[in-house]
Specification:
This protein is an all-alpha fold. It starts with 36 loop residues before the first helix and ends in a 9-residue tail after the last helix. It has helices at 37-46, 50-103, 107-146. Helix 2 runs antiparallel to helix 3. It has one domain.
Amino acid sequence: MAKRRHPRSDITAPHSPSLERRSEYVQITYQAPLPPPQMLEQYERILPGFSDRLLKDMESQAQHRQGLENKTINGNIQSEKRGQLYAFILAVLAILGAIYLIATGRDKYGIYVFITTFASLVTVFVVGKVQQSRELAKRRKEMKKLLPQPPEPRE
């Protein structure tokens, strides 16, 4: 019977190939609120029901955000209404005071109060309109940037 020799595994050859270690880093980015369909499918395979939970969470977050926005908008509207009411009351009181001063013989002071009140009201109105038109122009400019521009005609 012939004996077979098995090579020893603990002895390495002097010119054995060296092991090469590689690491790879992959980063995937997306800008949509949902991951791409392939990624959702992979998550769904790992964790069944993940896509449904993700959609429900997103819907819940959207409802919460919209609720906060509505509260903020309604609060701002109420604040503006209150401010307008207080300004109206002050203007009426100032005009009534001016009329009282004129009626009691203090014409110079009455006319001064009336003109000052009237000038203040006009100034507030004009400044408000100027600010409103500036904001509108700014919004138009921002919207124009977002919209695709038509190609320029060639001649």
